[in-house]
Amino acid sequence: MTRAGWTAASCAWLPLGFAAVTAAPEVVHPWLVPVCWAVYLAVLAALMSRLANRGGCLLVPALVPALLGIYFLCAAPLRSELLLTTRGTETRATVTHVDVTSPRGALIARQTLERPDGTPVAGGRLDENLKLDTGDHVTVLEDPRGELIPRTPAAADPTTRTLTLTALLGLCTSAVGWAGHSRRLRAGMVGARGSAGS
Does the reported pTM lie above 0.90? Predict the structure, then answer.
């Protein structure tokens, strides 16, 4: 395969594979999720080893923590928001208890909610730090399975995280594309090999 082909394959695998491992917790057994990540990163490293006279490998140690950070800080919360907006049901809930904590001096309020029929809202307490008191009413999206915490419709809107994730993955993909076409990186690898052989 040509240099352009390896570059295209790497640039395609990075976001597509990332999307697959992000969706993995919903479609495979939990113990298989780390296996999916291992396969994804191994294939990415193998593809990048073909770039710039193997100089693409130099980017792998930087890309791995970057991709993991993007996953935990952006992709995983986005997956929860998408699931909640897709399968969640809108409920007009009543605040029955407010728990206020002050870690590091910042006040954080969490509200326990119940449905109009008196049963608790599934998924746990509302933790958006809203200024709600006992007896107040609030509209939330409730996960029927109880796996996701309830959110107000505005907080569950995935638009912002979607745009952020797209931009971050675009930056990572651009770095891979640069590795595939960087003359400086290829020249550096050739020079390193020449120095090692002399």
Answer: no
